[in-house]
Amino acid sequence: LALRGFAKTGGTRGLIDMSGPTDHRAPQLAELFGDKRLPTFSSVYRANNWDWGSNSRGGAITDFEVTVVGMAVEPGEIIHVPGANYDIGQGYQVLVLYAGTERITLKYTGEDSVVSGYTIHVDGVCVEPNLLALYEKMNREGRRHLPALRAGQGFGRARGEEIQVAIRDTGRFMDPRVRKDWWRGH
């Protein structure tokens, strides 16, 4: 997400209703928070496309009005793995596809790719230092294995007053404000 970049856009800073099919096993974004709350959406953004031909950032993704949402948080608040009814083995929910000092990418299948399944990008977090060190070690060793996390497990703390969250389904950036998909019960 950092390579693609994203920019503020217009749009509702709250949940939206959208028609269409629903995967009742999809990650529930309220579970990013220990109290499973509906956060205040402090900002809305559009992620940029990626131009694979030139290996560079493209223009804004326009499939949806919003593809990244800023969620208000308390600085230092623990951010957790959102639960989904998927299991990548031994009770684990996600692989850590990327971890840096300010962001993390979580994948709800066992493959080291965003091409299939759900992927969540979270920016504005200080990734837990032991998790970051483990990811860096496994990445240096060729990514044969990557860290796996359980639903509800804390993976970092909010760096400031907002985290930015994007969700992808089979590689496509989705609108993270959609109630029926990512915020059931809210």
Brief rundown of the structure:
The protein contains two helices and 13 strands, in the order βββββββββαββββα. By secondary structure, it is mainly beta.
Task: Provide structural commentary.
The chain has 186 residues and is mainly beta. It has a single domain, classed as Distorted Sandwich (Glucose Permease (Domain IIA)), CATH 2.70.70. The chain is built from two helices and 13 strands; from the N terminus they run βββββββββαββββα. It has helices at 129-140, 179-182, and strands at residues 6-8, 41-51, 56-60, 68-72, 78-80, 94-99, 103-107, 118-123, 125-127, 148-149, 154-158, 162-169, 172-173. Strand 2 and strand 3 form a beta hairpin. The protein is globular, with a radius of gyration of 15 Å. The mean pLDDT is 97.
The CATH topology is given as Glucose Permease (Domain IIA)
Number of domains: 1
Would you list the SSEs in sequence order as H and E?
EEEEEEEEEHEEEEH
Name the CATH architecture. Distorted Sandwich
SS-based structural class? mainly beta
Helix content: under 10%
Helix count, per DSSP?
A: 2
Write down how many β-strands occur, each being a DSSP E stretch of 2 or more residues. 13
What separation lies between the terminal Cα atoms?
Answer: 27 Å
Radius of gyration of CA atoms, rounded to a whole number = 15 Å
CATH class: Mainly Beta
- The amount of beta strand, in percent, is 25-35%
Query: Which stretches are low in confidence, meaning pLDDT under 50 for 5 or more residues running?
Result: none
Q: Characterize the largest beta sheet: strand count, sense, and whether it forms a barrel.
A: 10 strands, antiparallel
Average pLDDT over all residues: 97
User: So what's the overall shape?
Assistant: globular
